[in-house]
Amino acid sequence: MKTFNVYRHPAQGLEAVKVGFSWPAASAGPIWMLAKQLWGLAALWVALYLSLSLVDPGTDKFEAGVTQALIYLHLVVGYCALTLIPGLKGNIWREKNLVRRGFEIVRMVQAETPEAAISQVAGES
How far apart are CA 33 and CA 46, in angstroms? Predict the structure, then answer.
C-alpha cells in the first residue's frame, strides 16, 4: 500500500498525489512536469539539460588529463542531479502547484493507485 494525499478543487474535482519518491518524475523529468502542469519547472529543466549538453562538446579541446576528468565528473553529477531531484521533490512540487491552483487537501489515504485513493475519498462524500 502507498500513501496518497487527496486534494479537492470545486470545479476540477479530486487529485491524488503519492507521498514520497516519484519514479515517473525521475524517469521522465520535463515530460512528467509538463503532464502535471509544472510549466516553469519544465522550462528550467530543459534549460539545464541544454546547458549541460553545451558543455560536453567543449571538453574535446582539453588535453586528456585532470581538467577533462573534472569536467566529465561535473557533467555526470549534473545529469544525475537532473534525474534525482525531480524524483525526490516532484510530488512536493506537485502538491504546492495544486494548492496554488485552488485545491485543498481533503485527507491522507492508503491505497494501491491514485485512482483507488480518489475513489476512497469520493465514496465518503
Answer: 11
